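Reply to dn_fold:

You asked what the input looked like. This is it:
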Amino acid sequence: MTRFALAVAVGALAVSASISTVYAAPAPCEESLKALRAAEATAKLNDADKNKVSELETKGIERCNADDDKRADDFFAQAMKVMGK
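and this is what came back:
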């Protein structure tokens, strides 16, 4: 009976841990990049802001290629902020 209770507890813990990581996962960086590029196409920016957005986009793409979606999304969000989106 003790082994059964332990097995159920471990199973419940494993399931709850996997569910919580699903909800905490960042958005796919490819989707964020798509949104950034769409916003960039319609934004009217001065040269300084264009350079800053381009720099943040490059850093984000680098992180996205390294499968670091969270940091890539952070760079893309910063670029969106520069554009006022």
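DSSP finds four helices and no strands in the chain.
Hope that clears it up.
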